[in-house]
Amino acid sequence: MHTQHAWPRKTREMCNHHMDSTIWNDFRFRDNDIVIATYAKSGTTWTQQIVGQLLNAGIEDVPVAELSPWLDLRIPPKAEKLALVEAQVQRRFVKTHLPVDALVFSPSAKYLYIGRDGRDVVWSLFNHFSNANDDFYAALNDTPGRVGPPVPRPPEDVVQYFREWLDGDGYPLWPFWENIRSWWDVRDLPNVMLLHFADLRADLPGQIRLIADFLEIDVDEERFDMIVEHCSFDYMKKHAANAAPLGGIFWRGGAQTFIHKGTNGRWRDALSAEDNARYTALANEKLGPDCARWLAGAGVPAL
């Protein structure tokens, strides 16, 4: 029974150079589906790797990018993508970068939402878009169906990129604060689990066990150390072609560039005190103090 909770309802579409949220209107859920959600560059691929390893008992070379598509990415066309996902016979796990109110929410699916300090997000975004090749920008900007302006190449200075992103609330992508807040507001639902990038870095084995428990996946203890090893950054970097979309063909340097540093705090020596104060003030204003503390890596308050 799912009647005791006020389940989220889709209230809008979000379509831009990257996304087409209308695909969720035609996605046919199964009771054990897993949805991995983030704003972007917040540990999505890392969490996909963890789920892929848990579902496949720690085997080598799980093709995560193939098994776990970004459902609302507008390429390939949604009919083609839906057919591929529908054909999967194993337990499915898909990725989204949408806020809660722009996707169809299923009471029977499990949702993992990963947060990361917005300043760390921007440094990762900067690497992502600075190293993207011409084919990347052509795919996003020239494929028919784009809504709104094209995605621009970033400026050469990461601090300028951060300031444009902060001033434009996620520019040139999609709004940042509403994405975080929308998932924070549904954290009490029994099928939603909030994770944080900093916690994955601090205690990967413990976080994997929490995820397994939430997803109701029985872990073979003899395989657990292998699962943890395969979710380490070093392993993912060496096997980046399995995690990067289309094997990393859209980035100069290939998949090794897509799986970049996996570190936090690169902004600390770059941003001014004024930049940091403005970011912190906006976080508190847009998210509220509890959510802002969580996003900064201070942990989820007890519920």
Automatic annotation (TrEMBL):
Signal sequence segment: none
Domain of life: Bacteria
Membrane-traversing stretches: none
Residue ranges of domain Sulfotransferase in the record: 31-287
Presence of keyword Transferase: yes
Family statement drawn from the similarity comment of this UniProt entry: Belongs to the sulfotransferase 1 family.
Entry-linked PANTHER family: SULFOTRANSFERASE SULT
Protein known as: Sulfotransferase domain-containing protein
Source organism: Sphingomonas cavernae
